[in-house]
Amino acid sequence: MQWALMTLLDPIYSVENLIYIGYAGDPSSAIRLTRRRRLDRKKQQSDRNVYQCFVFGPKEAGKSAILNSFIGRPFPEEYQSTTGDQYAVNVVDLGGAKKSLVLREIPEDEVKKLLSSKDALADCDIAIFVHDSSHEASWKRAADLLVDVASHGEATGYEMPCLIVAAKDDLEPYLTEIQDSTRVSQDLGIEAPIPISTKLGDFSNLFRRIVNAAEHPHLSIPETEAGRSRKQYHRLVNRSLMFVSGLKFMLSFRTYTLLPSCQTFPLEEHLRAIDFDPLRYYLDFNDLERSSR
């Protein structure tokens, strides 16, 4: 698992380590190059063996608890704020097919800095947005983060599947939590929220859902209002260009049909038509050919 994480974060350093420990084969053969994620979306499938999931959410939503559960750490009784990115890696079994999943926790106060880079989401296969289902403010902040990340993906071309995770399901949810989260997921065109409880439930279903969504990168991609408007604008421009091209062709064809038609004859037919007598006339062949045109 450490090898998968290290190779994902710094493949060059991994190759250098193989050389250092005396790897017998070609070090580059130990690393598998995969297709670009954008091409995976077009192909509507991904054959990667390692997926990286960005974990977003407000403070005290339960992000760290998900990472701890993933690697078998006990649930802490007291809240500890996360500073800097945290990683957790493990194997997820999907009916016999084993995939490595890397969870990367993004602290709430680091999101703005992360999204300031155009390539911030280039290495992200899937993102989850965790909120405390018992607090309305936590949900609203998670929804804002979801829109911010989705908008960044639409603007840069690094779109990815996104899932909403309703944490602390063992607590009483706020009054309209289910309606609010369901409405947002439907508006964005992604799956319904996944309820979990760190204290009570088994997280294996969540991790399988994450990997399954990553394997189908064309699904569960959120579409914001700005993204829909941008696509509609591009469709309108393309249709306008097609209309202009078609109109230009029609005008060109109409102009051609209005031109006087000129029949052309083979040289032999032309000579016969003008009653040419070679004994009486001598004409240069090129002049004759030009006159026949």
Automatic annotation (TrEMBL):
What is this entry's stated membrane topology? Single-pass type IV membrane protein
GO MF entry, a single one: GTPase activity
Q: Where in the cell is it found?
A: Mitochondrion outer membrane
Provide the protein name: Miro domain-containing protein
- Just give the chief location class: mitochondrion
PROSITE patterns documented for this protein? MIRO
Which Pfam family is one of those matched by this entry? EF_assoc_1
Kindly state one GO CC term assigned in the UniProt record.
mitochondrial outer membrane
Q: Which UniProt keywords apply?
A: Calcium, GTP-binding, Hydrolase, Membrane, Metal-binding, Mitochondrion, Mitochondrion outer membrane, Nucleotide-binding, Repeat, Transmembrane, Transmembrane helix
The record's annotation in PANTHER family points to: EF-HAND CALCIUM-BINDING DOMAIN-CONTAINING PROTEIN 7 (PTHR46819)
